[in-house]
Design the sequence.
């Protein structure tokens, strides 16, 4: 018998992928290996993605309001569709819950689910509600679509492409640190009020109620840009960049001073004694998009406040590095704080 | 605060459905309310269904081999597609598992998943593998397709239609009773060997490794029959018949002597002191199809060994009854032994 930990989540994923036969249906354009599977759907491609969220692994109900959790679960699924440059059409949400939850708690959870469905313009079309002997379980599956000439895989970037990232990075991770600290304080003395002031509200919001970047999918279409490759930043920039480079057969250089990091993230990072660069690289749960464009396309994005160029791709797959102002280069390794969850897609 | 148990699973499902807005996308042909959601997919309709299986609710690892569990999870999802008269195309399977599982256990689970994907001719295209703090969790989502003129809903049956069911009923429930009894014996004395002889193998197989009836979908097509309504028998015949009648606005008469019940089911029912009729009506997990055809269509099915006519639909929605040989009629009530799981679809 082999301990699962010796294989690790990435080894397990590879083992499952390697043993899975190639798709047999002519409708299946792409099976495992990207943010979503792809099927041939009339004029457009269909996209198909699924995510599983488990209490104690993906969320802690001590400080996660159920309404936000419902919203976040939908975000989790929709982000996979956005990462293929597509928009969601239908979603199912299945919930396993113990009878300790009152009806009002289920209402709250679904309020968040519906708010997200409205925000992302996706039809809630089904799902199971089932009893659970253990924690709260949420499973989300999404069908989306993308015009055939706009589909964007992870594996199609080339050397010299400009690496871009949306929004900012590391905030969700520091939001989690804040919430975890307040939980400790609360557990030690339940009369203490949480100290989550205004100047931290962005971090907490990024952790509790993140948004999938479907707005960027619209914007890229309006700008007439098809990225050469794209992936969503779920497990931290480092891990996603390594996926993109490995699958595209390229290396990359990113510049630490270019990483988009919010002021609140800087402040909280210093408070927790964490490097803001490390938080941006490995924090995870940002739900931003990492994508590449041809150098000649980049000027269309150059003054876009929602998109930052953080580096470029190189021809040597062995070199995925972080470059400092001083000219130092250090190899980037995947080192998510949470390596528990690995997508097979 | 309202206790979930006061609402019950059906009340909870209705509450969620009522509060969910109607689909907004023109591609969404049908949202909640059937075995699968329906979307417009070029020449065919697309079907989209999801199921969530939780340890301790849907399966007991004491006696369920992981390979069979993987197979059954796929069956669970594919059966929803068959119930719409469709065939599966793509499937995702997400698994949450604790590190107590060795790698070989994951291999076994996936062996069953892949065997089922081959049997049902469906492409395994993705899914998550994630750590779990509690029990084993499996989430299955399936995309299928059906020609537009062959799609079959629950809600379109009419009075005088003939009620048909595939295969036989109640065997999976008695298989579960056998396994539960052997578990008790084993827990009392771990040296005891399980008493699962040949003459019970059918019951155990029906519980552990049931098949979804995609063969019937092919057969109906070959016979040139489109059922007027169809649903899969997951929670027991009674419960599914009530769904079909409520959604179609009809009543029904079924004949107890017509219910297809295997000899092994009869034997085990008598051994456990259970009425075989009750097992057939309320046992659940049979994964057979309950469907209706126009009376003039029925002769095409009359001598089909895989399909049994069990009654007919009537105009009065208040009358869903079981008729005995002696001429007695008793109202049918949904009384699944396991009411824990209710599909919103």
Sequence:
């Amino acid at each position: 018998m082999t301990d699962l930990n010796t294989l690790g989540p990435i080894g397990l994923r590879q083992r499952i992928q390697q043993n899975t036969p190639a798709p047999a249906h002519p409708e299946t354009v792409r099976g495992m290996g990207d943010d979503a599977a792809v099927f041939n759907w009339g004029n457009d491609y269909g996209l198909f993605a699924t995510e599983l969220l488990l209490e104690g692994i993906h969320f802690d109900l001590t400080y996660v309001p159920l309404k936000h959790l419902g919203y976040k679960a939908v975000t989790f699924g929709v982000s996979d569709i956005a990462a293929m440059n597509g928009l969601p059409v239908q979603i199912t949400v299945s919930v396993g819950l113990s009878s300790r939850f009152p009806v009002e708690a289920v209402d709250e959870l679904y309020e968040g689910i519906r708010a997200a469905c409205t925000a992302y313009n996706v039809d809630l079309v089904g799902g199971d509600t089932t009893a659970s002997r253990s924690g709260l379980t949420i499973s989300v599956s999404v069908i989306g679509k993308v015009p055939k000439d706009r589909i964007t895989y992870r594996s199609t970037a080339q050397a010299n492409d400009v690496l871009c990232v949306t929004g900012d990075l590391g905030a969700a991770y520091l939001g989690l640190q804040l919430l975890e600290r307040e939980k400790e304080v609360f557990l030690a003395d339940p009369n203490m009020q949480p100290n989550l002031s205004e100047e931290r509200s962005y971090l907490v919001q990024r952790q509790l109620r993140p948004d999938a970047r479907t707005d960027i999918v619209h914007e890229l279409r309006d700008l007439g840009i098809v990225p050469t490759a794209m992936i969503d930043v779920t497990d931290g920039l480092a891990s996603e960049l390594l996926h993109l480079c490995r699958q595209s057969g390229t290396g990359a250089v990113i510049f630490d001073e270019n990483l988009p990091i919010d002021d609140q993230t800087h402040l909280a990072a210093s408070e927790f004694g964490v490097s803001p660069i490390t938080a941006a690289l490995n924090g995870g749960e940002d739900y931003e998009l990492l994508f590449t464009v041809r150098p000649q396309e980049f000027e269309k994005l150059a003054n876009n406040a929602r998109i930052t160029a953080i580096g470029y791709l190189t021809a040597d797959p062995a070199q995925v590095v972080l470059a400092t102002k001083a000219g130092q280069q250090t190899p980037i390794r995947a080192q998510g704080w949470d390596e528990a969850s690995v997508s097979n897609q």
